[in-house]
């Protein structure tokens, strides 16, 4: 079984910097898991620990049933039988395409006839049939990444590690390679760990997404779970550009600290009370005609503050991306119907706000109420 299991994994760099803390994660056989998080959150450290380039300070890494790191064991990278693709510099410029792809087979002392046959098959698979003799310098960026992918897969690894493997490519090539990567890894039954800084790519490709912050796992879930039931305000902000605002929740609703923002109780989702923070997803912010708020609609309080000013307004296929100054609070809205212009005054109507204990308090054990799904 080509599963990857990380148990109580810690990694501290010699400088004292914490790379990973208390990581428990199982990537199932044939599962595609994406790792996302802000810069410095530990994505690369986690991938390199699985690869065998870094040794954990404590905890274990298992591939299938085999411990490859921890418990006094350390299996070096070349003996872990993993495929790896990095962002760039992955293809050796002094070797032609076939020599690049066959390199792992040469190392494994596979005979010439079998090497040739497997390299040809692999090049066909990644859409580079007929490119065997080409100099990598004559290939496009996307073709070079396919060579790197073919080389990662030629030795038939059961686990594929991708570190920003598509990030250096331009759209729409990147989009096409995403689709190809998904069908290829599915058809080969590969277990994949994919590090990306691109949230949309992670949500589009992965069976499950892991959100890291400060070396810790903040949340693991399917893409719809993460989008509709973020475990914290920070996850909602990172994945969905939610506006996060701190304040107090009482029986009647939420009142923000320092901003003239009230949200009635009926529109709040989540159990936390007292000092809380709310996350307002852009999809839950509607723009309406400016004026006093209607009943049951959240609005900023105070004279003259019912409306917000449009700070930026960008067209987007799945809705316009509008940033508002709402009584001093920067609020994001995604709205399909009306695209306001910068400087315009608009009314704000919030359909839902997710409530979490304030940052620093314990992470909620339960997801927001079932009715909170977007
Ligand atoms: N070689 C190193 N020596 C000391 N600290 C390191 C080293 N590599 C990474 N770190 C630290 O470990 C933490 C995690 O870094 P890591 O590179 O894993 O993050 P990342 O999520 O991959 O970031 P990015 O998206 O910028 O690549 C950071 O605080 C980083 O500064």
TrEMBL record:
Alphabetized Pfam families for the sequence: ABC_tran (PF00005)
Alphabetized GO MF terms: ABC-type quaternary ammonium compound transporting activity; ATP binding; ATP hydrolysis activity
Lineage: superkingdom: Bacteria
Residue ranges of domain ABC transporter in the record: 4-239
Annotated SUPFAM superfamilies: P-loop containing nucleoside triphosphate hydrolases
Keywords tagged on the record: ATP-binding, Nucleotide-binding, Transport
Entry keyword annotation includes Signal: no
PANTHER family linked: SPERMIDINE/PUTRESCINE IMPORT ATP-BINDING PROTEIN POTA, SPERMIDINE_PUTRESCINE IMPORT ATP-BINDING PROTEIN POTA
Name recorded for this polypeptide: ABC-type quaternary amine transporter
